[in-house]
Design a protein that fits this description.
homodimer, 44% helix, 15% strand
Amino acid sequence: MQSFAERFSILAEARSPLCLGLDPSADLMRAWGLNDDPEGLRRFCDTVLEAAGERLAVIKPQAGFFERLGAGGMAEMARLIAGIRAQGALSLIDAKRGDVASTMEGYAQGFLGASSGFGADAMTVTAYLGFNALKPVFDRGSATGSAVFVVVHSSNPEGRSLQNARHPDGRTVAQALADDITAFNGKLGAGTGPVGAVVGATVDPAQAAILNRLPQSLILAPGVGAQGASLADVGANFAATRGRTLPSVSRGLLRHGPTVAGLRQAIDRHRDEAWRMWA
Amino acid sequence: MQSFAERFSILAEARSPLCLGLDPSADLMRAWGLNDDPEGLRRFCDTVLEAAGERLAVIKPQAGFFERLGAGGMAEMARLIAGIRAQGALSLIDAKRGDVASTMEGYAQGFLGASSGFGADAMTVTAYLGFNALKPVFDRGSATGSAVFVVVHSSNPEGRSLQNARHPDGRTVAQALADDITAFNGKLGAGTGPVGAVVGATVDPAQAAILNRLPQSLILAPGVGAQGASLADVGANFAATRGRTLPSVSRGLLRHGPTVAGLRQAIDRHRDEAWRMWA
């Protein structure tokens, strides 16, 4: 069985390392002229999939914007994930789930692998309830060739103070999490493991030092575009994880909809830029 | 419009402060003789609602165990929440969502208030991405008479090290969050505000000092039963938030199913104990 990291590597080479984030807010639905209901959401997803047309490696639905519309919204997320799979791309649910171990087992069964509730290839999680409470998702990620991305250094400024609080040994919360991730992946062998990290594309060069603690992880880097970072910034600041970084663009790309042609042009432009980031 | 705190206070008096947590794991479904699919989940919820029959103040579905079964599972959660409302009880979705502000706006629209995607009365959230990123859920909680419970001190031991990391001013992560909650509620006026806290029922007397920082919050206290704390422990350790604590029992009560009679007896026993906790 191929790991998520192996599948990503092949797709990134063939298509681009770019990750397209989907955050269909009420504002975006309005801008696209869609009704803000599950049927409108289906049209949104169909348009995105048509524009993406086997040109993207990773598509990342942001769960909150589907859950927003209740169970009907979640049914559209499940349908979208099947569509992503049909294009040979990887689906990454940006769910940021984080709970005690018994509940994380539930989320693992819900999100990770083709036979899970939603059938996705990867998910994001948070660690307020402890890194070790996340073990059930890591184990299922490993068993199903899926990936789990733990938020380490988020892209928003509000997260800074908690993530920089210090343990008695002097490490920050973010640093200790990065070390925990690396220890977990290391136990499974050499190479890139199933546990990745979220490190906001908005990091400055000093903050980017956290990447040196993550030698066996894929890195999801959200915050490109609307939050102020460019793909060139990612290329410069994420040099330490070259070839293992998924730069994620959402609003900055989706604002080029709602036409398939406009969206596809924007996708192609961002794909090229993401490739150059690695060149 | 009545606040969640006002509605809880009346119901706790009339019924009991007990909160019943629902975590239909694969193991529990098997123990109840149910198929582990959305139809089995519907039977599970119907049995619980029949046993509860207007005797409980708060019912807390654990989102992970519904999401486990995909969009069909989430549809059952929506149906359950409508059933809870029909019994005049309060629904609290144990979702532990935590993301950047724009996404928290999505979760607020999804969970808080009768007109939201799932139509619930309250939800739990986590703050790894920062307390201020949660503002959209607090604001919607305040506007719709709903409540938001921020995880401060979780019931599981794995959470201890992160929650005890220290800010430069010497406060732990948990203490700073408690102070942020109190500052937010305080700005809205006197009395119990819309932002509550999750403090595990498993706290020892020293850890319970965190409650003194939460004078205007409801406190959700999970971990009664299976995780080792008793309702008597909650009565002793949560004296500082007397009348504002929701002790939550899940597996310790559900193991008395699957018959309605067995479950109802267990509910009544726990209700009485929860009342005595306040006596």
